[in-house]
Inverse folding.
């Protein structure tokens, strides 16, 4: 079988549509991951043993089980509790939830890296706890971890094709659907693969730039 | 819930496939990581370029896309893969790219002085790598390798999408047969979690062994100094 | 400056230990040796000779190129220009038969390195091996000794450096002084004919320095290797060497027997340097 350029041209608009869904899911999921991860991190620092141990094990559980199964869980199980979600919304929540356990680790490491003297300076200045966190600790911690967070955005983008398993017509799902209709899989899936490589490579170059910029503090 | 437990044979079959995929995939990934990681430390530019191309390309691809490509696209140009082969290849190639970066980074992190000592003892380039640099780099590789192993294990779930009867695939079957959506998924999530914990234990065990090889960690016999040090490190409290 | 002592203090070692040593160790000759790091010229057309079996100490301010000389001899740094001879063979070059020298390949370097051993400032023991394997790995893998032969050699050398009881320990469990003793034994296990000592006591706690120096003095007495030593310990330099070379900016400022260099240096730069070192 030969590569069919006309066919490739015909399917491109559909694929770009799929890419739009992929990007939407990634960005929305990432927003959830960034916020929820911070929630986990802060909860783990509460003095209550019950709270921080529970959070520790819940996040460990989410982090060490497959995203795909979690997507199924959200999509198929939640309706039995009366929460019915559309495929895309379920997918976004799944991505965000799964990756929040990674961002939580990143934040934790970032906070641990803030020198002890910064905390002591806050105490010496008698800053209230909320000011200490919002004005001193978090800005420094987050600055340190920007490149790592960038890497997780890329990782998430590459995990987004799993959403096809819960009927989201994202990039790979679209390609598969086209292939199934025409029985010509080579062009759509190859194009999708190249799109993924292109986006990932370009974004990891950007992340490396970030690393350079934030390396010197 | 009992319906799910009744299907335990099916779940165990699935878990077995998941374990097999994890073992085969990580074996392939390990080989690729070592080969391309070593290439990344070569003095020759074109060998290093080989490392860059492999790493950038396969880190950039999504595993599922790669697997679909092996399974659906390549047969159309004459390359036919069994589902298992397509799965192991795509998992191994993808995680191997991350592993190659770990190997390269760890080798580069071995102090240059160690290399110089091997030259002073007139070791051949192969002996330098095999006897001194690689064993020391392994200590640095193990923790990130542990994470990659868990990632690979989780990644195996996608093989259910190309009809391989792994844990996730069996779950869909049981769910279809019994309608027990909640407990089916709870059961396999727990199974995945258990597998992950076992893998983590294995990695910790390996880490301890390597620490012993390097003379770190708890003292082998009567060494009061080391015991005190070990006790002290355990008392660290978060601020 | 303390009064000069005769270098050949009668030592309790074997008799024939007179000044012109008869040795099967090779001599060393630097011919117009140039070494650059980027635009920084560390050695500029350096010439000097070390006689077979001679013990030479290189002194001088840091950055004067002393360590670079040892590293060139150990093939840890590449030569930029000139020729280094070990015995009658060039270290970095091969003679194509017609007297023309061409840059040498790995095989030649491997062959030449057989004669040379080095002890490093930071010991550089292999942390992934215990003391025994640190000492036997080279003899077994490189020299092709049997395990038993290598073991016997290791035990003998550990006895010499006074660490027989540490043979199964890991380097990480030894003190700095003990690690350096093991490193000395490791270098000797390869039976080098040229031994390079690169500031071997600089990384040690002050109370451990004397022990390692005493050991090296004993070794210098008992063997007939050609010895090149870089050190900031002037007493040690005086005790161990037949000749002292004072370096500054990649060139030899002054040379002579230790009693002359330390007792009545003729160059102002040498005097300044010695004053600065002895003041600390």
């Amino acid at each position: 079988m030969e590569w069919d350029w006309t066919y490739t041209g015909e399917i491109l608009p559909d694929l770009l549509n799929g890419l739009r869904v992929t990007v939407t899911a990634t960005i929305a999921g990432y927003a959830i991951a960034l916020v929820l991860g911070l929630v986990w991190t802060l909860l783990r620092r509460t003095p209550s043993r019950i709270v921080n141990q529970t959070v520790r094990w819940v996040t460990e559980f989410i982090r060490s089980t497959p995203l795909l199964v979690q997507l199924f869980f959200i999509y198929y199980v939640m309706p039995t509790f009366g929460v019915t979600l559309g495929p895309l919304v379920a997918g976004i929540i799944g991505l965000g939830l799964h990756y929040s356990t990674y961002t939580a680790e990143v934040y934790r490491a970032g906070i641990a890296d803030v020198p002890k003297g910064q905390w002591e300076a806050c105490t010496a200045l008698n800053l209230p706890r909320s000011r200490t966190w919002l004005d001193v600790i978090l800005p420094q911690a987050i600055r340190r971890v920007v490149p790592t967070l960038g890497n997780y955005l890329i990782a998430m983008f590459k995990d987004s094709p799993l959403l096809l398993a819960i009927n989201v017509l994202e990039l790979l799902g679209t390609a598969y659907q086209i292939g199934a209709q025409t029985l010509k899989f080579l062009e759509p899936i190859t194009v999708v693969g190249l799109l993924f490589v292109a986006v990932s490579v370009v974004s990891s170059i950007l992340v490396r730039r970030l690393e350079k910029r934030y390396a010197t503090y | 819930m009992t319906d799910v437990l009744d299907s335990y044979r099916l779940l165990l079959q699935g878990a077995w496939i998941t374990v097999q995929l994890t073992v085969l995939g990580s074996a392939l990934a390990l080989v690729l990581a070592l080969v391309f990681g070593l290439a990344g430390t070569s003095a020759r530019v074109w060998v290093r370029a080989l490392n860059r191309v492999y790493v950038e390309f396969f880190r950039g691809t999504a595993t599922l896309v790669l697997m679909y490509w092996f399974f659906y696209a390549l047969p159309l140009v004459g390359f036919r893969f069994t589902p298992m082969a397509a799965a192991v290849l795509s998992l191994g190639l993808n995680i191997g790219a991350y592993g190659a970066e770990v190997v390269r980074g760890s080798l580069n992190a071995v102090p240059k002085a160690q290399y110089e000592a091997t030259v002073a003892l007139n070791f051949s380039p192969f002996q330098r790598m095999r006897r001194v640099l690689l064993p020391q780099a392994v200590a640095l590789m193990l923790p990130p390798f542990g994470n990659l192993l868990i990632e690979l294990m989780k990644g195996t779930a996608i093989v259910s999408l190309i009809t391989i009867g792994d844990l996730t695939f069996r779950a869909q079957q049981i769910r279809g047969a019994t309608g027990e959506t909640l407990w089916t998924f709870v059961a396999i999530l727990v199974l995945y979690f258990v597998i992950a914990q076992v893998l983590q234990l294995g990695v910790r065990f390996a880490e301890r062994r390597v620490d012993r090889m390097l003379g770190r960690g708890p003292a082998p016999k009567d060494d009061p100094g080391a015991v005190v040090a070990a006790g002290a490190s355990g008392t660290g409290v978060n601020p | 400056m303390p009064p000069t002592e005769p270098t050949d203090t009668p030592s309790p070692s074997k008799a024939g230990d007179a000044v012109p040593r008869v040795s099967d160790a090779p001599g060393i000759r630097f011919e117009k040796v140039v070494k650059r790091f980027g635009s920084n010229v560390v050695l500029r057309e350096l010439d000097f000779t070390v006689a077979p079996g001679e013990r030479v100490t290189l002194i001088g301010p840091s950055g004067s190129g002393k360590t670079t000389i040892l590293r060139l001899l150990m093939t840890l740094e590449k030569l930029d220009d000139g020729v280094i001879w070990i015995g009658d063979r060039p270290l970095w070059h091969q003679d194509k038969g017609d007297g023309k020298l061409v840059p040498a390949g790995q095989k030649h370097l491997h062959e030449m390195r057989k004669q040379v051993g080095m002890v490093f400032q930071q010991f550089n023991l292999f942390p992934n091996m215990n003391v025994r394997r640190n000492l036997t790995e080279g003899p077994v893998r490189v020299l092709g000794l049997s395990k038993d032969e290598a073991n016997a050699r290791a035990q003998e050398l550990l006895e010499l450096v006074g660490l027989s009881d540490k043979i199964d320990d890991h380097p990480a469990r030894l003190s700095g002084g003990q690690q350096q003793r093991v490193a000395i034994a490791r270098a000797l296990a390869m039976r080098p004919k040229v031994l390079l000592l690169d500031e071997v006591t600089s990384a040690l706690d002050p109370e451990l320095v004397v022990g390692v120096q005493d050991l090296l003095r004993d070794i210098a007495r008992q063997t007939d290797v050609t010895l090149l030593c870089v050190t900031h310990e002037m007493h040690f330099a005086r005790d161990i060497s037949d000749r002292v070379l004072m370096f500054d900016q990649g060139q030899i400022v002054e040379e002579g027997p230790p009693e002359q260099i330390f007792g009545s240096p003729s160059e102002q730069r040498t005097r300044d340097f010695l004053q600065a070192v002895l003041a600390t």
